[in-house]
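Lab notebook page, bench 4
Experiment: in silico fold of construct C2
Operator: M.H.
Input chain length: 139 residues
Purpose: comparison with the prior construct
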Amino acid sequence: GTKPEMAVRRVAHALGYRFRLHRKDLPGKPDLVFPRRRAVIFVHGCFWHGHGCKRGARMPKENREYWSAKIARNAERDAASVAAIEANGWRVLVIWECEMKDADALAHRLINFLGKPTSCGGSREDPGVADGGEVADDS
C-alpha cells in the first residue's frame, strides 16, 4: 500500500475497526473494505487521481498531454468504480492525500462514516477468508 493508505489503515486499526484489503470482487479494488458495514474506503493520491487541490492541479512540464489524459482516465475509472459499488448497496468514502494532515480529524471522519467500532476485544470485522481478501490485523 501507499504511504497515505498505510496511514489510514493505522488509524482505522487503532480505533478498533477490522477490515479487508483490496477485494478483487469489488469494482476498483477498494483500499479498505468493511464487509459487515457494507462500506469501503478509497485512499487517493491527489496527483494520480486528479484532485482539485494544489498538489492535484500540478502537471509535469514534460509530456503534458500524456499526463493530462492519464489522470483524466484515472478520474473516470474512479467515478465508475464508486458508482458501481454504490449501485450494489455499499457506502463509499474517498480520502484524499491532502486531507490526511490531521490524524484526529481523520479518526473523526472514519467514525462518522463507519459508526462506532465494535468493542469485542480483537474480534475481526469479517472472520474467515472465503473471499480471498487479506485480513488486516497487526496482532
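Observations: The first strand starts at residue 19 and ends at 21. Residues 121-139 have pLDDT under 50 and may be disordered.
Next step: discuss at group meeting.
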